[in-house]
Structures are given as C-alpha cells and as structure tokens.
Amino acid sequence: MRALFWRDLRLFLAGGGAFTGLIFFLALVATIPFGIGPDLNLLSRIGPAILWIGALLSTLLSLDRLFQADRDDGTLDGLLIGPQPLALVVLAKCAALWLAACVPLVLASPVLGLFLAVPPQAMLATAVTLLAGTPAIVLIGAVGAAIGVALPRGGVLVSVLVLPLAIPVLIFGVSATYGAVADPAPFTQPFLVLCALTLFFSVLGPLAAALALRAMAD
C-alpha cells in the first residue's frame, strides 16, 4: 500500500493535475470580485462560501485521473486480481490524490481569501474546514470515478454523479466557517458533523468504489 501510495502521488504531481486544480481555484476566486463589484462587505460575507465552492469544483477536475490512467496502461487489471484488498487500494489512491490535489487548495485558501476581503478568523476557519472536508469529497468522488472509468466521457459523468452527493459536505463546511466568525460556539457542531462525514465516507467510499470497479471489469 505504501508503494502504491507513493507511486500514485508521483504520477499525480508529474501529470500536472494538482496545478490544474490550483490554477482553476485561483481563476475562480480572482474572477468573483469583478462579477460582484467592489462591495467589500458583501465579498467578506460570502467569501468563505466562494472558497469552499472553488475548492469543491477544483477537486472535481482531478477525480477522473483517479483510475483512468491505470485503466489505459493495464495497471488496473493487475490491481483487480492482485492479493491486496481492492478497498484498501482505492483508499491509498484517494489519499495520494487528496495530498496532491487538495492540500495545495487548503494551503492557498488563506492567500486567496485576501482577494475576497475575508477576515483572518474566517480564513483560518475556512482552511481548517477544508482540511477536514476535502477528504470526504475525494472519497465520494472515488465512487463516481470507478463508475465512469469504463464509460466514454467518464470525466463528465464523474462530476454529475459526485456533485449532488458532495452538497452535504459543502453545507456543513460553510456552516462551520460562518459559525467560527459569528460566534465560537456554533463552530463545533457543524465541524464535528463534517468530520463525521469524512470518517463515514472513508469506510463507505472505498468499499463502494471497489464494488463498482469489479462490476465494470465484469
């Protein structure tokens, strides 16, 4: 599993997928103020939600890379018949994708928050909630990527399948961020739910993705 993790991490970084998501994140956040106007109070109020939406969409751009390259070069067939449990293989690949594609988004979110006049406390809360919530998006996306790996235009299908399932993660991530800004007390409940969603999908996501991969192979 360690070898698979490091292999996938090198491939994700070498393929430029991480930088593509980061550039899209930057472009989206930098464009929003031009569309909304110079109202700093409005930008400050909706800034955390924009950062979360940008991170969600940027992550969706990277999901089709999860299994597609392995299918093209035959590696996926070897993983399907290999001795390692397929669910653990999926989990290792998800961890590599998250580290390559999502951690840069988390690190960039406080800097990009300056474009939206987000207060420092809100920028910190956004980074913390993204760190806790983006793994759930990747784990949900693994199921969609497994379903779309054998289909034409699978990347479009992945986004269509994953986006509705990721809405609860978005809701609780934004709620926790606003809770940290308005009052420290309301931050705890939505943040714990966000962490619970990540833990839930860390079990369900790899199992469902493994079943989908075997069904696609059959």
From TrEMBL:
GO biological process terms held by the UniProt record: cytochrome c biosynthetic process; cytochrome complex assembly
Annotated GO MF terms: heme transmembrane transporter activity
Keywords: Cell inner membrane, Cell membrane, Cytochrome c-type biogenesis, Membrane, Transmembrane, Transmembrane helix, Transport
Record's keyword annotation contains Kinase: no
Membrane topology: Multi-pass membrane protein
Transmembrane parts of this sequence: 12-36, 42-63, 95-118, 124-149, 156-179, 191-213
Function: Required for the export of heme to the periplasm for the biogenesis of c-type cytochromes.
NCBIfam families referenced in this protein's UniProt entry, alphabetically: ccmB
Family under the similarity heading: Belongs to the CcmB/CycW/HelB family.
Protein name per its UniProtKB record: Heme exporter protein B
